[in-house]
Amino acid sequence: MSDSLVLKGAKDVKKQKGSELLLVRPKRGGDFHQVKKWWATNANTTIYVGCSVFKVTTGAGTAYLAIDTNEMSTIRVDHDGSFNFSFFILAQVSRAALFTEDWKIIEHYMFPKIAKGPVTTVIPPGAASKPSAAPVVTIGTVTITGATAVNDGDTETYTVSASGGASPSFVLTSSEAGDVIAGLDVTFSGAGARTLTATATDAAASDNPATGTLAVNAAVLFSTRVANADLSVAVTVADTGNGDKYQIDGVEQDGIVATVGSTIHFDMSDASTSGHPIAIYTDATKTTKVTVGIETDANSNDLIFTPPIAGTFSYQCTQHAAMGGTITVTA
């Protein structure tokens, strides 16, 4: 930010290009403030001089610029946004000064009329400092490392690192409200995609926080899906006189009835099912295999079927003909 203006006749502001310089009027009225003389002071005498006063405000703070108005006609003031000033059109202007909000002097500006040369900046002994913003420590890149494919209920530990910025501390959060975060440990609650976010800040209050994200997909454990199935049937294989057939809960090739969206678990844990893998088809001819709504376990031959639509399906042995039964699905 920066500002520039022309002050005419010590009280009229013209051609202002910003908003950092604000001409302030005395509370008791009038155009000029009575400011204690800040140069060549006498310890035994307090002398006041009439000044035009600008309140100078930036993100770093506030100061007051007082311009001695004795014999003054016109002056242009440029401000760079950091309490540094340039002055022009100075034939009738003697001096100015920058003060803190509680009127402690920061700098004294002597103009050519009395400096007999270029504008001279004088810093009196014991002068206050210009307002300045606290240093900003920028933390550049935040990186999260850890498992991205997890199961519902798992607890995973993640590592977080940041470049740029000293001694960062990290806060890890998840877009899934049910997840439990303890430091950098995440216990996942529920299946589905979520985003882990780490926010890094330095110990200083002035830091700009930086964030890093990690996409994680959590799947429900197959065992959990089995436990929560709407219908679970025990599958065995036996020859009752007409060849090997599936037995559904002890009933040979029994029909199964379900509704759309319900889950059917085919328990293939019995040793007799070895060599008789099960699959779902659109009919007993096994012409079209159903792939939607099918879940299998890599550690067993178990299968879960969640019918996506109403209709008649068929559970069948993929290796042998005439070994299966119907699944009737209603809406």
Description:
With 331 residues, the protein is mostly beta strands. The chain has 3 domains: 120 residues, no CATH class; 79 residues, Immunoglobulin-like (Sandwich); 106 residues, Cupredoxins -  blue copper proteins (Immunoglobulin-like). 3% of the residues lie in helices and 47% in strands. It contains 2 helices and 30 strands. The radius of gyration is 41 Å and the shape is rod-shaped. The two termini are 67 Å apart.
Q: Key features?
A:
single chain; 331 residues; mainly beta; Immunoglobulin-like; 3 domains; seven-stranded antiparallel beta sheet; six-stranded mixed beta sheet; 2 helices; 3% helix
The class by helix and strand makeup works out as: mainly beta
SS element count, helices: 2
End-to-end Cα distance, whole Å, is: 67 Å
- Tell me the Rg in angstroms: 41 Å
Strand content: over 45%
Average pLDDT value? 91
Summed up, the domain count is: 3
Largest sheet: 7 strands, antiparallel
The strand count comes to 30
Low-pLDDT segments, ≥5 res? none
- Shape summary: rod-shaped
- What oligomerization state is this entry in? single chain
Q: Could you estimate the helical fraction of the residues in percent? A: under 10%
